[in-house]
Amino acid sequence: MSRSETLADGFPDLSGHKIAREAYWGRWLTAAIIVVILLAIGRAFARGQIEWVFVERFITAPVILRGIVNTMIMAAAAMALGIALGVVVAIMRLSPNPVLRSVAGGYTWLFRGTPLILQLLLWFNLALVFPTIGIPGLWSARAVDVMTPFLAALLGLGINQGAYTSEVMRAGLLSVDIGQYEAAQAIGMNRLQALRRIILPQAMRVVIPPLGNEFIGLVKATSLASVIQYPEVLHSAENIYYANSRVIELLIVAGLWYLLVVSILTPLQMLLERRFARGIARGR
Amino acid sequence: MRPLVAIRQVSKRFGEFQALKQVSLDVFEGEVVCLIGQSGSGKTTLLRCVNQLTSADSGGIWLDGELLGFREQDGRLHRLSEREIARQRLACGMVFQRFNLFPHMTALENVIEGPVQVQRRAVAEAKDEAMALLRRVGLADKAGSYPSQLSGGQQQRVAIARALAMKPKLVLFDEPTSALDPELVGEVLGVMRELATSGMTMLVVTHELGFAREVADRVVYMDQGVIVESGPAGEVLRAPREARTKAFLAAEVG
């Protein structure tokens, strides 16, 4: 052990010292405990009543693949509808017009206040209320023909999503400084121009993380559409296990697919965030 | 001669607070008018009324002979549509205390936003003019920078270029140097001085008495929502007649 040199004024000379690496014993210990627990759970599943060959066989079965494609189509379409509705409703809620404000408030209240599965069932069974639908004199059709599982699921999921998205968008719009509205007005913009060019692009930066959250929720909520016969991945899995009774194996297949889809979404969200962070310096 | 801006008997109240009491003021073409006074004296409210960011409770403001915000018909005032008000705003540029540049756009994009999106001018032409304006405020080399990459003084100069890009008849300045570090005030005042020399009509709310003394044609001192004293810069600032003006100037000079 070398002795520290002493500076002229009596303090030790520390300029040549290296900072020692810390050992972090606690981290090693907790990591070890977690590994043991995971091994135990893995062993339990390996020894349990699960025929993993069925998981392997069905994970790429055409019905399952078609199911996951349908899940993704429905999630994307319902999210698009939800964002479109959400933006419009959020703008209505912040409008000076009390009629628009009440309509927007009522919409959010109704569709956020009732269970999604109930809304899906209502859309699917709309024919019981309105046997024929259409525009009088122009076009009409039997509701049972129009309200396919796809359309019912799209309306149910999309309109419900719109109610939640509108609140996310409203928070985003409120986060933009009032000075930005005034600067936009000062160069002669009307309300809609200011929203489209100045306010929304800045609000997007704030809303993308919660919207990503909403979208992940929606991907999984599409599974509820299985109750109205929309052939998404859980519905496909159920159809198979009704025939072969491999319930757990097929649920695991569906679960793995959901995990995969959600895992792909995270990096996509990061790309979007970077796109809308233009001009924003962030201290690190 | 008809004033470019004619403010007549304008009053404004925010709840219990009477911000403006029957204020009348003329600004003639080519004139630089500085509004001075303590915070809360109503000078910023008056400026914002000219750009209709605040609407007066009573009285009228005419810009180039056109009544702002209302249409008079059969002895009543009818509020103009949002589109009409947006059109009227094109006549005056506005420079804010806190710059209010659009953070998601570069300096150049900030300047061409109004000409391209509102006035529907060709992008190439708007860009050429914007570059000329950025050169005029000494920031041609910062055209591609985002506001967050610029100093406060640079941001305010871009904001001035943005206001000028609309080719306004007058430019309103709302305490343009109050949010700046002291060493950055000079560059902004320099740009404003050049603008005044070029003959631009300017209505400036400011605490910079030195600037007012040097550049203003007329200085208006406001207190508690009324114009206390108004006249040539030299007279009001060097030899004020009103006791309140004297007290304010004594306090400002320190």
Strand order of the largest sheet of chain B: 8-9-10-3-11-12
The overall average pLDDT of chain A, rounded, is: 91
Instruction: Classify the helix fraction of chain A into a percent range.
Output: over 70%
Low-confidence stretches of chain B: none
Count interface residues per chain for the largest interface: A-B, 24 and 31 residues
List unreliable stretches of 5+ residues of chain A. none
Instruction: Specify the oligomeric state.
Output: heterodimer
Order of helices and strands of chain A: HHHHHHEEHHHHHH
Could you characterize the architecture of this molecule?
The complex is a heterodimer of chains A (284) and B (254). Chain A has helices spanning 25-47, 52-58, 62-93, 98-112, 116-124, 126-129, 143-146, 149-175, 178-186, 191-221, 233-244, 247-276; strands at residues 132-135, 139-142. Chain A is mostly helical. Chain A has a two-stranded antiparallel sheet with strand order 1-2. In chain A, α3 runs antiparallel to α10 (191-221), α5 (116-124) packs across α8 (149-175) and α10 runs antiparallel to α12 (247-276). The longest helix of chain A has 32 residues, at 62-93. The two termini of chain A are 38 Å apart. Chain B has 254 residues and is an alpha/beta fold. Chain B is 37% helix and 27% strand. Chain B is built from 9 helices and 12 strands. The radius of gyration of chain B is 18 Å and the shape is globular. Chain A binds chain B through residues 177, 179-180, 182-191, 193, 197-198, 201-202, 205, 276, 278-281, and chain B through 51, 53, 82-83, 86-87, 89-90, 93-94, 96, 98, 100-106, 113-114, 117-119, 146-149, 162-163, 166.
Short description:
The complex is a heterodimer of chains A (about 280) and B (about 250). Chain A is an all-alpha fold.
Ordered list of secondary-structure elements with their pairings:
The complex is a heterodimer of chains A (284) and B (254).
Chain A: H1 25-47, H2 52-58, H3 62-93, H4 98-112, H5 116-124, H6 126-129, E1 132-135, E2 139-142, H7 143-146, H8 149-175, H9 178-186, H10 191-221, H11 233-244, H12 247-276
Antiparallel strand pairs in A: 1-2
Chain B: E1 5-14, E2 17-27, E3 32-36, H1 43-50, E4 58-63, E5 66-67, E6 70-73, E7 76-79, H2 82-89, E8 92-95, H3 107-118, H4 123-136, H5 152-164, E9 170-174, H6 182-197, E10 201-205, H7 209-215, E11 218-223, E12 226-232, H8 233-238, H9 243-253
Parallel strand pairs in B: 3-10, 3-11, 8-9, 9-10
Antiparallel strand pairs in B: 1-2, 1-4, 4-5, 6-7, 11-12
Helix pairs in contact in B: 3-4, 3-5, 4-5, 5-6
